[in-house]
């Protein structure tokens, strides 16, 4: 009889639960990892409730995962059994021009190539299969549980900041909307990579206190008066970079209202909002960007920042029995930091 493992599996539109299934075996060129931790991402909620489902059913979700190399498929070299690795999740074809540079997040064949936890069985399982060792990033001495959020929340916010670094010189300002799993990392990455003044915006005072403890220069409660306050803080100029990590109608409208001429508005949150673009309503020479994950070099850079002590994820550790309740807490905006599934927690 095959060995069995627990996994959080999508079984249909709006239906996901913990199941027991056989431990998978790696095929040629594949690597099996024993899962150390798998982060819960707000985008998982879109996947769970999509009708019809985005992915084949049944499907193991979770795209933010670390683990220890456990078994190598035929032909695999360069991977050390027992060593800790992070999994790069936006898999591409591996052959087009972007993929050749490690930018598989913008693979020319996307989204037809399924990624880890995005069409291929993902990380919320006690053992996971990675299709190619090129997707594995060595973690060195980093705690793989603490490092799990770097695999999505970290790479995504690093990629967003990196795209706008040229705008963030001395005297510039950056606004972060939403200080959750991604926002608390975005603040640290901005602090590590740029001299920009960091202004955090959130609905909850405790999250703003957290933001300031992580290096934000200012914290503002979202809502009436926030636009005027940011304009005043920036001498009327607005922010060179606004990263909206919520993405609903209200936050997108607010983001547009505080953007500087020549600035960049980055829409990262998947809140389903719409940003009306009319010539005279956008600041002159401003741009809108929709960053998606990042490249493998981006992920290596994020891991290096963490190894050097510049970035750390505030992790809430949960077990399989806590997954559904934690997603509800996340959906209600009550979760501070990043929840990660740790299989050793009962």
Descriptive report:
This protein has 346 residues and is α/β, with parallel strands linked by helices. The protein has two domains: 196 residues, Quinone Oxidoreductase, Chain A, domain 1; 135 residues, NAD(P)-binding Rossmann-like Domain (Rossmann fold, 3-Layer(aba) Sandwich), CATH 3.40.50.720. It has ten helices and 18 strands. Strands 3, 5, 6, 9, 10, 17 and 18 form a seven-stranded mixed sheet that branches. Strand 14, helix 8 and strand 15 form a beta-alpha-beta unit. The two termini are 24 Å apart.
Question: Secondary-structure map with pairings?
Answer:
Blueprint: E1 4-12, E2 15-22, E3 31-39, H1 43-49, E4 59-60, E5 65-72, E6 84-87, H2 97-100, E7 115-116, E8 119-120, E9 127-130, E10 136-138, H3 144-147, H4 153-164, E11 173-177, H5 183-193, E12 197-202, H6 205-214, E13 218-221, H7 226-233, E14 239-244, H8 249-257, E15 259-267, E16 287-289, H9 296-307, E17 315-318, H10 323-331, E18 338-341
Parallel strand pairs: 7-8, 11-12, 11-14, 12-13, 14-15, 15-16, 17-18
Antiparallel strand pairs: 1-2, 1-4, 3-5, 3-9, 3-18, 5-6, 6-10
Q: Please tell me how large the radius of gyration is.
A: 20 Å
Summarize the biggest pleated sheet.
7 strands, mixed
**Range of helix content:** 10-25%
> Unreliable runs, pLDDT <50, ≥5 residues?
none
- Portion in beta strands: 25-35%
The structure class reads alpha/beta
Quickly count the helices: 10
CATH class of the largest domain equals: Alpha Beta
Number of strands: 18
The domain tally reads 2
Overall outline: globular
């Amino acid at each position: 009889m095959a060995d069995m493992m627990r996994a959080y599996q999508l079984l249909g539109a709006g239906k996901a639960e913990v199941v027991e299934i056989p431990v998978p075996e790696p095929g040629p060129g594949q690597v099996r990892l024993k899962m150390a931790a798998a982060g819960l991402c707000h985008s998982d909620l879109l996947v769970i409730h999509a009708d019809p489902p985005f992915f084949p059913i049944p499907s193991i979700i979770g795209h933010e995962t670390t683990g220890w190399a456990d078994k190598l498929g035929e032909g695999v070299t360069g991977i050390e059994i027992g060593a800790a690795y992070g999994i790069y999740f936006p898999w591409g074809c591996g052959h087009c021009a972007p993929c050749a540079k490690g930018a598989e997040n913008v693979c020319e064949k996307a989204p037809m190539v399924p990624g880890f936890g995005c069409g291929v069985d993902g990380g919320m399982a006690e053992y996971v299969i990675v299709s190619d060792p090129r997707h594995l990033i060595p973690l060195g001495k980093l705690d793989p549980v603490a490092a799990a959020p770097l695999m999505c929340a970290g790479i995504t916010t690093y990629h967003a900041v990196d795209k706008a670094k040229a705008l963030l010189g001395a005297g510039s300002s950056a606004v972060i909307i939403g200080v959750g799993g991604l926002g608390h990392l975005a603040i640290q990455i901005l602090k590590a990579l740029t001299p920009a003044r960091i202004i955090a915006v959130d609905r909850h005072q405790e999250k703003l206190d957290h933001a300031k403890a992580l290096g934000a220069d200012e914290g503002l409660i979202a809502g009436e008066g926030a636009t005027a306050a940011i304009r005043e803080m920036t001498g009327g100029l607005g922010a060179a970079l606004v990263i909206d990590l919520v993405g609903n109608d209200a936050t997108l409208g607010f983001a547009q209202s505080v953007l500087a001429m020549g600035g960049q508005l980055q829409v990262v949150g998947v809140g389903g909002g719409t940003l009306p673009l009319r010539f005279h309503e956008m600041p002159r020479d401003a741009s809108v960007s929709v960053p998606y994950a990042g490249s493998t070099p981006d992920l290596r850079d994020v891991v290096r920042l963490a190894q050097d002590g510049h970035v750390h994820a505030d992790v809430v550790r949960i077990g399989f029995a806590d997954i559904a309740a934690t997603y509800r807490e996340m959906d209600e905006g009550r979760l501070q930091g990043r929840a990660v599934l740790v299989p050793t927690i009962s």
